[in-house]
Amino acid sequence: MVGFCNGILTAMITPFNGDGVNFEEFGKMIDYQINGGSDAVVVLGTTGEPATMTEEEKTAVIEFSVRHAAGRIKVIVGTGSNDTKKAVAASVKAEKLGADGVLAVTPYYNKCTQKGLYEYYREICSAIKIPVIAYNVPSRTAVNILPETAEKLALIPNMAGIKEASGNMAQVCETMRRIRGKMDLYSGEDFLNLPMLAIGGAGLISVTSNIAPALVKKMYNLVKENRLDEANEIQDFLLPLEDACFLEVNPIPIKAAYNMLGFDAGVPRSPLTELEQKNKDILLSEIKRTGLKGI
After folding, report:
1. Is 163 annotated in the active site?
2. Looking at 58, 93, 152, 163, which residue is catalytic?
3. Which is the CATH superfamily of the domain at 7-225?
4. Would you say 201 and 187 are in contact if contact means Cβ atoms under 8 Å apart?
5. 20 to 30 Å CA-CA from 140: which of 80, 105, 162, 178?
6. Of these residues, 121, 135, 220, 258, which one is catalytic?
7. What is the per-residue pLDDT across 75-129, written as a single tens digit (0 to 9) for each?
8. Distance between CA atoms of 54 and 268, rounded to whole angstroms?
9. Is the pTM of this model over 0.85?
10. Which of 107, 5, 94 is nearest to 44 (CA)?
């Protein structure tokens, strides 16, 4: 399956307050993405902190996102787990609640085999009709989707793509060679957005686009128009900001960045902590340098 969702897919934070999820602010953030040209919002992915949310909160986030987006932008829901049954159940729920697609991270901690990875995604895809994007992020899960496994996954009818965050461009290029024309490749590393697009990537599942959707979309458009010199100028301009957005583990810096732009993103839930002051200073400096405007 190719062409499910090209462009900028923003890996959204979840704003919290003392009562739980701050839905009023979340709506403002979704509107900010729409106005900035993003093509989809990804909710309950790693950036959204689902590991510290209740099932009731996650259900409410999906319902709100679908209702607020109202067809203006695609809503993709993070449903992965280290338990296949839980991943399947979460994917079925997302489909019933109106999600356009799901993003399923590889099973973490269990360290399954490549055969286990294939069966995990096969079961998810068999349970729903909406598109599924696999999420390969070995630094968090200790499991790596190898290119030959990605090639097999691409034969599953509603397997729409793979979000690649291995950081290994040699592997990414081989994966792209094997899946080209069968399913899409998405960049899952903001630092590698441009090269992944240049080899044929369909889009970017980006953290930085939380605060700079228009700039990230401009870079994407320039690559797709084969205006690589101009795209490189944007990438060079963005790179120090992207560095600042990962000074501490995601989503700590990007939540702080939202607050700096005038949103009420709250603070990360424990065991994550607030961004340290020295890093806040660096991040704020980059936000000012790039001229970002929030609400």
Report:
1. yes
2. 163
3. Aldolase class I (3.20.20.70)
4. yes
5. 178
6. 135
7. 999 999 999 999 999 999 999 999 999 999 999 998 999 999 999 999 999 999 9
8. 15
9. yes
10. 94
